[in-house]
Amino acid sequence: MIIHIDDAADPRVSDYLSLTDVQLRKVKEPAEGLFIAESLKVIRRALASGHQPRSFFMTERWLPDLASILADYDHIPVYVGTAEILEKIIGFNLHRGAMAAMHRPEPADLSELLANSRRIAVLEDIVDHTNIGAVFRSAAALGVDAVLVTPRCADPLYRRSIRVSMGTVFQVPWARLPQWPEGIQVLHDAGFTTAALALVEDSLTIKELAARNDQKLALILGTEGDGLSARTLAQTDLAVMIPMADGVDSLNVAAASAVAFFATDPRH
């Protein structure tokens, strides 16, 4: 259902309004039950994972590239406009082909997720969407069963997180913990050994952690600036470090996650 848009104030495209306003979007999208998939690859991965579109949004030149997909969703609006009109609506030049507003899925059941997982990642208060997306991409590539995010952590289904993850956020089950660090006890009750990545005196090395081969392992990663909170470290079973060469304090949280996921991958 192709609909041509020639007015940036058209209420039918309100899902796409002001995509660069992070504060607006992080309230609007969960409240209205949507998320935005950006680029042809991400849209295809979202649809392949079973997510349902609310609408599509693109310039006319990209219609042929999505023709095979649009044929299966001929009842869904496809909003088409000039590059100038679309830029006024979303706030930037849309050069990645197309976007889709998708119905946000129901949250995963935490108990079921923990019961069916052996190795999970827990992200404490990570607010940078690029890092969130990168962690999910590493989790998908390196066999992490699920990702849990704390209440103050950024939204994994925010547009930038999805794009940086290359759509792999749709492959890895995830859930938001209702409380933190109280949620650590939930992990212990589910049989997980909790391992906090932190540079403290009694830390194991990541190789020593891998050698333990814990049956159920939760790797806890902290915020970009301050790392994990003291309350979190006090409640976890283990502290774990990635040894650094002289003169380097630590890795970015996204890089650290990739190292930790690879080192503890039971397939190796």
UniProtKB/TrEMBL annotation:
Pfam entry (one): SpoU_methylase
The domain of life is Bacteria
Q: What positions does the domain tRNA/rRNA methyltransferase SpoU type occupy?
A: 120-261
Keyword set, alphabetical order:
Methyltransferase, Transferase
Q: Which GO terms describe its biological process?
A: methylation; RNA processing
GO molecular function, one example? Answer: RNA methyltransferase activity
Q: Does the keyword Transferase apply?
A: yes
Q: Which residues cross the membrane?
A: none
Q: What is this protein called?
A: rRNA methyltransferase
